[in-house]
Amino acid sequence: MLEFIQLLKQRYQTILQQAHLESIKGVYQQRIDQLLMAEAFLRKGALVESAPLPPLQIAVVGPTQAGKSTLVNVLLQSGAAGVSPLAGYTVHPQGFCHRVRREDCGGLQRYFGRFQQLLPMQLSKDRHDCFSLADADSQSSWLPDCVLWDTPDFDSIDSATYREGVIRTIALADVVVLVVSKEKYADQSVWEMMAALEVLRQPTVICLNKLSEGSEALIAHSLQGKWQLARKDPFPEVVPLYYQKASGLPVWPQAQQGLLQRLAGQVSYKKHARYEQELLQYYWPQWLEPIAQEHQALKDWQQLLEHMIKQALDNYQRDFLNHPHHYETFQVAMAELLTLLEIPGLAGIMAGTRRALTWPVRQLMKLGRKKSALTETSHEVALLNQIAEHALLQMTDKLRDKAEGNQQRLWWRDMSALLRGRRQELLIDFDGAVRHYHLTFQQDVESAAHRLYRKLQEQPLLLNSLRATRVTTDAAMIALALNTGGIGVHDLVIAPSLLTVTSLLAESAIGSYLHSVEADLKRNQLSQVKQALFIEALRDKLLLLPTQLSGLSHFNITPEQLQEAENHLKEKRHGLRLL
Predict the structure, then answer these.
(1) φ and ψ at 150, to 5 degrees?
(2) What letter would DSSP give residue 318?
(3) Which of 179, 286, 529, 565 sits a CA distance of 20 to 30 A from 369?
(4) pLDDT digit string (tens) for 477-518?
(5) How does strand 116-118 pair with strand 146-150?
(6) What H or E segment, with its residue span, contains residue 33?
(7) How far apart are the first and last CA of the chain?
């Protein structure tokens, strides 16, 4: 599951760089933040499952100039965290090990992934993919044994450049300390962040900083209203922080000295896996919305292709297989039959053709030239290429229509451009497949001729009468001309003598057998044209077109990838292995 969340996040980030609509940018950035949080929370799941358990993590978070670093120093009862009156001074997550050895925090580097662990003095404002971990230089009565994190703000103009570090640190936290000032507590960014964190189920405390005498009750009441609008869980305890004039620092109230220890006692990792699942299920429909739209477009594309194949097959049957003047294949079979008959006066000439049929190794080149000539003059070959060209033109028009009035118009527009660019290549490949099919199908034609000949051998009177007629001799000469390339396949369809021989056989004792052989030949022909040409050489290649769409503009996550992730998501608690 972690790999799928990372893949989804990367696709959002890539597409966001190409997005032009501001409305989409805002939504996609929000989803990227959610995915970052989910990825970090899954990483925390791996951390808490490791042995030994990691130390307690407390994160101090809040908007710019709320006094986060100052509060960290108050809680540590030291000056370990750097402070400045300038906004955005802290741009890296900075952890302070309070009564915890840094050696016991080895899992944090694995948790932060690509972020590098440095010492505080090694941090640079020019690089944001890092965090620091240092020993606290004192012991505080306000804190339990823990790593206390000072975090960058999440609401300044520059926060986008270091926002990932903030999200990773917040997701790591077992306890969250929200710091707001009387000037900042009502900011929308504060409550958007707190609403997003509800699904993490972290014990939370709100610190009201920079208070003036008498303002606490009014602000605390307003805070509660905003909390209840943003979240459904109980309103947390509020810690009022008043400045000491002598020190210039806020003072943690004595009455709440044991608050953080009490919140630490509420931390339990037993339900973390369930919380992971709830987080994913909560955001899943939002994250997958554009992928579902692409998959719907993909289904629509597949339906268009199925309709195209059906239409192409209908046209093929109407204009060739069932056309009385264009269907040539059975006439070729009849010509092959005549080469098998012992026609008086033509036996010597026809023997060469028979040897080509019965001794293909010796006559391979001759036979190949014969079949090639059949293909070059075949009406079927020309018609199949025309059908394919017409089908692709129709698909281009339909794609253009979809691009004009569809929610996924960008997908359809890019598909239309892709098809136009590949159209000529597809047609060339299709023509090659048609010619290959036509050459190989001559084996079926010859097989049909041999079936008829064996049936005629069971009827010696009919066989001898055919040999003796002038019209059979004329038809045999036409068959010989076909074998030697003297005429084209289309000439067979209109050759009177060959039509007469066919009629004689149809009206004879083997008439019904003749019709069954022709029907079998047509069925085989339709089956091979459908599978080898319209499905394998055309539809299957068109089905691959969506995989060639640019990854800069499209998610290109396959239904199979999504299904595998959703199967993980639906697994029950004891089978849930999100990592």
Answers:
(1) -95, 130
(2) I
(3) 529
(4) 444 444 544 444 444 444 455 556 666 666 666 678 878 888
(5) unpaired
(6) helix 22-48
(7) 6
